[in-house]
Amino acid sequence: MNKYDIVIIGGGPAGLAAAISAKKNGIDRVLILERDKELGGILNQCIHNGFGLHTFQEELTGPEYAERFISQVKELDIDYKLNTMVMEIDREKKVTAMNREDGLFDVQAKAVILAMGCRERARGALNIPGFRPAGIYSAGTAQRLVNMEGYMPGREVVILGSGDIGLIMARRMTLEGAKVKVAAELMPYSGGLKRNIVQCLDDYGIPLKLSHTVIDIKGKERVEGVTLAEVDGKGKPIPGTEEFYSCDTLLLSVGLIPENEISGNMGVEMNPVTSGPKVNESFETNIKGVFACGNVLHVHDLVDFVSQEAAAAGKNAAAYVKKEHTEDGAGREISLIPAEGVRYTVPSTVNAARMDEKLTVRFRVGNVYKNCYVSVYFGEERVIHRKRQVMAPGEMEEVNLSRAQILQYPNLENITVKVEEDETNGSKESDLH
């Protein structure tokens, strides 16, 4: 059986950054397993620009961003296998995979980094009545057809959902000559980045109907049109608000789900909010030596943050292999608790004995908030109180915690991150951001 120090599942932006980081931190035997025919993951079909502003301080397309990392992987002589499907990982970190050249094979790893990315929520999860005609695509499938295969899914388009891929495809289909009639969003707010709403809908005069959904699809062989209706606070269609749009294509952009079948089967503990693994400050799961990063952990809006997280996961996996981590008994596991508007935090726990000087805690809010504060409490004491003009579910937020400050609280058990509407309780405040 082949043996490697670190095996990375997935050769997209997270897997590439994790592999490079592990290699640079002194691990020689690193292997990337990728199921597609090339490295780069989803970036290969994201031909629009806007990538790399944080990482490289310049605007790149998805393939350009991926190429920067792929070339580093090749320069560092990191092993990778393409067209390889990982079937199973056991708790002893034995990876079972399959491809045409090797057949079914096993690789024994000292550490595993999960970087499988995410998948789109399919039509079956939506409960839309009607037949199953041709012309209904997920936004990501349509993106691959247009950008990589050279096919045009349709000419008259309605988009359900306002996730970033759907917004970007509204612009892309328009540029290819299609007529995008409307984008409908079930929630009272958009699920995408503000800049994408402006650049992909507003700039092309495409209306966005919030609190609307598709209640019927017309057509047996091919989509002929869809009926939209406004929904109430419980998501139920309001009678009398129906509008019919003739179209030949319906694109679904209704959310992304971390790709975690392998993780779940091996016993990784999941966060019910993110559908990704629970991790500590080192991006390590409840299974020792198994790390997770990128969209398999929680869905990101910017690939730059994926790369940052993955680099940290690669560095920590390298430390684990080299046994640089402190012993289990050292330090205290402190729980991070999301509250009052904060849906989740990554990581879920933190141990000051293992963390770097600064730890970035990322989270998303559950609603649109204006003129509010992000507050962090160490136990009962508020230590961060930062003003925010606007926060929305489509944009990831972050706060920075410092190791030195956590160590000042030797008996700390909980750190709470919450949204506070206004100035209510005056206590010790400092802004670490």
Total strand segments: 27
Biggest sheet architecture = 7 strands, mixed
Fourth-level CATH superfamily of the largest domain: FAD/NAD(P)-binding domain
CATH topology group of the largest domain: FAD/NAD(P)-binding domain
**Helical percent range?**
10-25%
Q: What number of structural domains do the residues give? A: 3
Shape: globular
Structure classification: alpha/beta
How many helical elements?
Answer: 8
Q: Any low-confidence stretches, pLDDT <50, length ≥5?
A: 424-433
Strand content: 25-35%
Query: CATH first level of the largest domain: which class?
Result: Alpha Beta
What does this structure look like?
By secondary structure, this protein is α/β, with parallel strands linked by helices. The protein has 3 domains: 2-119 and 257-325, FAD/NAD(P)-binding domain; 122-254, 3-Layer(bba) Sandwich (FAD/NAD(P)-binding domain), CATH 3.50.50; 330-433. It is 20% helix and 34% strand. It is built from 8 helices and 27 strands. The protein has helices at 13-24, 62-75, 139-149, 164-175, 194-201, 261-265, 303-321, 403-407; strands at 2-9, 30-33, 49-51, 60-61, 79-81, 85-89, 94-99, 103-114, 118-120, 136-138, 156-160, 179-185, 208-210, 212-218, 225-230, 243-246, 249-252, 256-258, 290-292, 333-339, 342-346, 349-351, 358-365, 369-378, 381-391, 397-402, 414-420. Strands 1, 2, 5, 6, 7, 8 and 19 form a 7-stranded mixed sheet that branches. Helix 1 (13-24) links the parallel strand 1 and strand 2 (30-33). Helix 1 (13-24) runs parallel beside helix 7 (303-321). It is globular, with a radius of gyration of 23 Å. The N and C termini lie far apart (47 Å). Residues 424-433 have low confidence and may be disordered.
